[in-house]
Amino acid sequence: MFSAVSGVPVWGILLLGIGHSWAQQRNRNVLLIIADDAGFETEVYNNTAIRTPHLNELSKRSVIFRNAFSSVSSCSPSRSAILTGLPQHQNGMYGLHQSVHHFNSFDSVRSLPLLLRQSHIKTGRLVYLSLSLCFLRPFFLYVAFHDPHRCGHSHPEYGPFCEKFGNGESGMGRIPDWQPQRYTPDQVKVPPFVPDTPASRIDLAAQYTTISRLDQGIGLVLKELREAGRANNTLVIYSSDNGIPFPNGRTNLYRAGIAEPMLVHSPEHTGRWGQVSQSYVSLLDITPTVLDWFSIPYPAYSLFGKEPVVQLTGRSLLPALDAEQPWSTVFASQSHHEITMYYPMRAMHHHQYRLIHNMHFKMPFPIDQDFYLSPTFQDLLNRTESGLPTHWEKSLREYYYRERWELFDTQQDPLETRNLASDPSYTDLLETMKGHLRKWQWVTSDPWVCAPDGVLEDQGPYKLHPECRPLYNDL
Ligand SMILES: *[C@@H]1O[C@H](CO)[C@@H](O)[C@H](O)[C@H]1NC(C)=O
Ligand SMILES: *[C@@H]1O[C@H](CO)[C@@H](O)[C@H](O)[C@H]1NC(C)=O
Ligand SMILES: *[C@@H]1O[C@H](CO)[C@@H](O)[C@H](O)[C@H]1NC(C)=O
Q: Signal sequence span per UniProt (predicted)?
C-alpha cells in the first residue's frame, strides 16, 4: 500500500516500536502526521472549494483545533521543535537542515525518540515496508508527507507545487494509489493575505492538487492502521510544520505564517469528537502530549551544564480532548530559514493580540529561493516594478521593512495590517506582553534575549546572574 506514501517525496518516516514497558500493557500507540507547508485548504476548516475526504473522516473522530500555532515558520526548525518540545533557539536547529548548510539540533538535546527509547522503546525506520508488518508491537510512527511543498525551483518539470509528480503524464512517473484531482483557477479560494491575481490563482490550483495527494496518502495510512487492528488504541495527530508558502505565510510569524491545522484523535476520548476547540495550542505541545499518552515523565536536564534546567514549556493536549481549556497564549521564535535568511524574530500571541519583535528590523525581510520563483511572488514583483495594482493589502516595501515592534489586534484586524505598537492607548498592553515574551526567552535560554540593544553576559562574573549589558546603539 505504501506506494503513494513512499512514491511521493517523503521527509522521513520514523517508526519506534515499544518494548517491554507499561506502554505495552496498555497497548497504546501514536501516529503523528505532519504535512509540509500545509494550511487550512481543507474541508475540515470550511474551505468549500477543495475536496479532502480522508481528512474529513479523521476530523469527525478528532478535536479540531482552530488556534494551533507553530513555534517557528520554517520546515526543519519546526520539525525539530515538534520532536523536542523546545523552540529552535533552544534546541539549536536555527535554520533549515537541508542541503549543504545542514543546521542541526544539539547532540545533547533529549528528543522524543530518545525519551521513548529510554522507556524501553525500540526505534527504527520504515520506508517501503507495509505498515502492518511493523504493527506487531506498540509504536510511535511519524509520517512526514512532502505534499504540499513547492518544488518549482528545484524540479520545475513537476510544476510549482509538484502537482504533476506521479500523475502519469509522460516524464512525471505514476503513483498507482493517487488519483490526481485537478482544480481550475476560478475554483480556488484566495486567502485574504495573498494577492488575488490570475497568477496566484494558478498557483493555488496547483497547491490544491498536491493537497489531494496528501489527503489520499493520509487515507492510505489510516486504512493500514485500521487493517492492522490498531485504530482503537492509537492517538493520531495531524498538523503541518509552518504556514503556506505565500506572501505573509511561511518564514513569517504573522498568523498566516504560523497558524496550523491540527486534528487530535484519541480513540479513548470520544466526548469531543468532531468539535472545534478555540484553545490556543502550540506544536511545542506535541512532545508533552505524546509523553503524557505513554505516561513517560517530562525530561528535566541541563544543556551544556547551564542554568536554567531545560523544561518543556508546552503542555499535554489530552485535557483538551475532554473539555475546552482556557489556554490563550502561545510563543514563537525564528532565526533563519535558508542560510542567508537571518531575520531573528520573537512573538507572543495572547488572546486576540499578537506581538512580534523584529530584532533586525533595519534589514529588509529576506526571501527564500523557492518562494521567490513562485508564480505568486514573481507576479507581485512584476506588478510592483511596473506600477500595476498588486491586489495585496500591503506594499512590497512594507513587507520588506518592518517596525521593530508589531502589535496587532487580530480580532479587529485579522489581516494584521494596523500596527498598534506606537499607539499610546496600547502602551500598557505592549509593555506587559514584552515582559511575558522576554520571560519566555529567559526560561527557554534564548541566546537572543538581549538583542538588539544589549549583549548577553552569562559567563565569568555573570555566570550565576546573567545580564543584558547595554550597547548604547540608539535602539
Ligand atoms: C466551520 O463552520 C461552521 C459553521 O459556521 C462552524 O461552526 C465551525 O466551527 C467551522 N469550523 C472551523 C474548523 O472553523
Ligand atoms: C476496537 O475495534 C474493534 C473492531 O473495529 C471493535 O470491535 C472494538 O469494540 C473496538 N474496541 C474498543 C475498545 O473501542
Ligand atoms: C514577470 O516579468 C518577466 C519579465 O518581463 C516575465 O518573463 C515573467 O513571465 C513575469 N512573471 C509573471 C508571473 O508575470
A: 1-23
Which ligand has an atom closest to residue 46 CA?
A: 1
pLDDT in tens, 374-424: 999 999 999 999 999 999 999 999 999 999 999 999 999 999 999 999 999
Atom 2 of ligand 1: nearest residue by CA position:
46
Q: Which domain holds residue 242?
A: 24-322
pTM (2 d.p.):
0.93
440: cell is 519566555
Neighbours of 227 (CB within 10 A): 14
Could you tell me the sign of the dihedral formed by the alpha carbons of 107, 113, 119, 123, in that order?
A: negative
The best mutation among 378, 379, 388 to test binding of ligand 3, ranked by most ligand atoms within 8 Å of the C-beta, falls on 378
Of 355, 331, 302, nearest to 81 by C-alpha is 331
Atom in ligand 1 nearest the alpha carbon of residue 45: 13
- Asked whether residue 314 is assigned to any structural domain, the reply reads yes
- C-beta separation of 237 from 64 below 8 A: no
| Structural domain contains residue 184 | yes
* Per-residue DSSP letter, 196: -
Q: Is 199 in the pocket of ligand 3 (CB under 6 A)?
A: yes
Q: For ligand 3, what atom is nearest to the CA of residue 199?
A: 13
Structural domains in the chain (count): 1
Of 349, 381, 269, 293, residue with least CA distance to 66 = 349
Q: Looking at the CA of residue 64, tell me the nearest atom of ligand 1.
A: 13
